[in-house]
Amino acid sequence: MRVTIRDVAQRAGVSVSTASRALSGARPVGTELTTRVTAAARALGYRQNRLASALRTQRTGTVGMVVPQISNPFFPALVEAIERSLSGSGRQLLLCDAQRDPAVEAVRLQALADRQVDGLIVAPVSAVASADALAAVAAEVPVVQVDRYVTDADLDWVGVDDAAGLRLIAGHLADVGARTVVLVSAGSESSTGRSRLAGFGPAAARHRLTTAEPLLGEYGIDWGVRAADLLRARGPLPDAIVGGNDEIALGVVRGLRAAGVRVPDDVLVTGFDDAGFAALADPALTTVRQPHALIADECVRLLDLARAGGEQAPRRIALAPTLVVRASTTRS
Amino acid sequence: MRVTIRDVAQRAGVSVSTASRALSGARPVGTELTTRVTAAARALGYRQNRLASALRTQRTGTVGMVVPQISNPFFPALVEAIERSLSGSGRQLLLCDAQRDPAVEAVRLQALADRQVDGLIVAPVSAVASADALAAVAAEVPVVQVDRYVTDADLDWVGVDDAAGLRLIAGHLADVGARTVVLVSAGSESSTGRSRLAGFGPAAARHRLTTAEPLLGEYGIDWGVRAADLLRARGPLPDAIVGGNDEIALGVVRGLRAAGVRVPDDVLVTGFDDAGFAALADPALTTVRQPHALIADECVRLLDLARAGGEQAPRRIALAPTLVVRASTTRS
DNA sequence: TTGTATGCGTTATCAT
DNA sequence: ATGATAACGCATACAA
């Protein structure tokens, strides 16, 4: 049988409550008894049954996270950062994958709520189709959205300041001599697609860059390849192509190269996110890095705030990204 | 207050035990009462408190997993597969990141055990430094190693058949006309480094390929770049370079390209694992794909077997990989 | 400061 | 087949 707190108490010659208090530090315990208890605990190799504790305290020390797809190269870094941020306060991450399906996502959200997680960090699959399920769980457990958010639900959100990211990119492109730029990004189904599109025009204008009509498709390498063809069909290429994320940018590079256009020699290309492979690509991608650690910390902070403060107006926290200049915009 | 099974029982006009049995199906319950109970449960929106259930049944329905580093591009696909395999039986994955540190890993293993996970799936950070902690938790909960294993611990393992993978690669290289090949891989600190090295010679011999002295460093793009230089310094390049994993292969490609050597035109290059970026790289990497879904299923199966059967001789399951031919070995 | 007794929500045991 | 009751391991209200 496992060693329980009863065994510890017995061995230390105290009551169970004293043992509990001595170990948790919830209430003061005499110095001698404290040492007796801790000694007994160590001697017996006692380790708390977190389940029983959670049942009693209503706190599991676990936080649930649902990502659209963990194999999507953007999320592992985020998961890692959140796992790390949580472990700072002794909590653990219960990770679920939504398989890009709002229905699966809904099941996962409920399952996590049933396991009494202390909070839920969610990157919703869809801006609209995920809304109901998210609102439902939010009624029973604190929820923070990360990266993406759903429309029509007043929930906290933490992500990157897309407008600021695009300003960084525009500034850099202007610095290296670009005059004409075009955006290749995702449409407005996702919240990030919308805000990146909205941020692009003003950012370009601020740095006196001439823009052409944006090409909007979806986040993915295939769309980037296709967009490169569309762009060439349009006429002379711009000086620079701004990808809505790294995958699109990589697709653009590949599409261009297949047509004999060299990057960065003939055209500059930038990405967004700094997903793992951006540095591995050839040419390595100039991109905007999301501050994973800060995003993670903010998520955790909002979660704790929600637990403490109860109902509040939803907070939306957009953190500043940083520019990472690599070979795709560096002419030798 | 949350709705508990008491509420359901009351509304259905039965005892709590009957309600429990009707809902769980543990013991037969009269048809009428069953319908009354399920109706009441649905009407009240009852959802079981998994914690309380777990405390009683000693089964949490969660499986812990510890990976060396989730941002390492090999692991997300594995995590996804395991998450999926588990969800088939209604279980969930508690994911931890060891931050490449055996000490952190040890803490995570204990934390998961304290949370009463039903099983543990671990890709150990180090073949030697991870052994003690792994053996310790294995004493209290079923453990299955995946991908890598520790020496000196009799624990189940599921992974890929490295020798078979290298035979696939050698066969393919022979098919496309290569005569001389060299291995660039990791040393023998990791179990995979050891077995891939061991499998290379026989695989090459089987297909009448001439081999040169292998270059052994570590899994990582930097080593690949450096190895490319070492290889060029050695004299004329071989027809093909076999990377110990995809990162090394990518580094080799980059190192060669920096020196003006073209892939695949001048030299063929292969990887191992089919990590996410292998398909995204340029040129896309010919590699050996690990059967993630099968590996995941086997992990789960062994876990369940261990729960059921108690102590057994450790099982080591090496699954057959498949060859993925891409541009890095395809001359146009 | 310490001990006693109760309950968290559920399932298992033992009756009937 | 059904119900009363105890117990899982822990933390806390209350009493001393």
Automatic annotation (TrEMBL), chains A, B:
MF annotations from Gene Ontology: DNA-binding transcription factor activity; transcription cis-regulatory region binding
Annotated ranges, domain HTH lacI-type: 3-57
Superkingdom as given in the UniProt entry: Bacteria
UniProt keyword Nucleotide-binding, yes or no: no
Swiss-Prot/TrEMBL keywords: DNA-binding, Transcription, Transcription regulation
Pfam families linked: LacI, Peripla_BP_3
Keyword Transcription: yes
Protein name as it appears in the record: LacI family transcriptional regulator
Lineage of the organism: Bacteria, Bacillati, Actinomycetota, Actinomycetes, Micromonosporales
